[in-house]
């Protein structure tokens, strides 16, 4: 996983982003919530617990120690590990959640295969992230060289993620999008009082943040 040290050294700075961008955080959280199934789950790359805690996900996997310590304060039990080699048993979970994690992975497809391994038949993977080809995706890439956290990141399109999920064995994809552009031009402008209901739409291609859910077949022979 690229750039782990920076998340250890600047975990509090990373965590503070969610307070400075409360509108974006609220919309991203609600979009993930809508596609997250019930049951026993784990967040991969759980960070400081900003998503796991409010979503009721009590277990996380996170390589950065400082991030795990902050997550623990929010009630998330984060264990040390990487997405490409999960320290978890086969066929054990109803869902695996990845939020703003994929861009930091050494191999997204390998991580998705690991998620497939730990999921029970009929289980789901839920991936939330910035779309490479969106307004914010382009802004992130333009500023990437100057970013403490995203300098080593690799951004992906919705199609990239869908392809890798399919290659890992997931089917029946479903997608939501949020962080929609403002009406004044091609720039995302957060509302002062965001309407959660109006700020999330099915599909992708308009919003800068998308959430995709894929499912593991109930039987291995199913397509």
Number of strands: 8
**Per CATH, what is the topology?**
Rossmann fold
The general outline is globular
Order of secondary-structure elements: HHHEHEHEEHEHHEEE
Strand content: 15-25%
Radius of gyration: 16 Å
**Quaternary structure classification:** single chain
- The number of distinct structural domains comes to 1
The parts where pLDDT drops under 50 for at least 5 residues are: 191-197
| Class from secondary-structure proportions | alpha/beta
The side-by-side strand order for the widest beta sheet comes to: 3-2-1-4-5-8-6-7
Q: What share of the residues lie within helices?
A: 25-40%
Major β-sheet profile = 8 strands, mixed
CATH architecture: 3-Layer(aba) Sandwich
Distance between the termini: 31 Å
Number of helices: 8
- The average pLDDT value, as a whole number, equals 89
CATH superfamily: Vaccinia Virus protein VP39
Give the C-level CATH assignment: Alpha Beta
Describe this structure in words.
The protein has 223 residues and is α/β, with parallel strands linked by helices. Helix content is 33%, strand content 21%. The chain has helices at residues 4-9, 11-20, 22-35, 52-55, 65-73, 108-118, 135-142, 158-168, and strands spanning 41-44, 59-61, 77-79, 93-99, 119-130, 171-178, 200-202, 209-215. It has an eight-stranded mixed β-sheet, sandwiched between helices. The chain is globular and about 45 Å long.
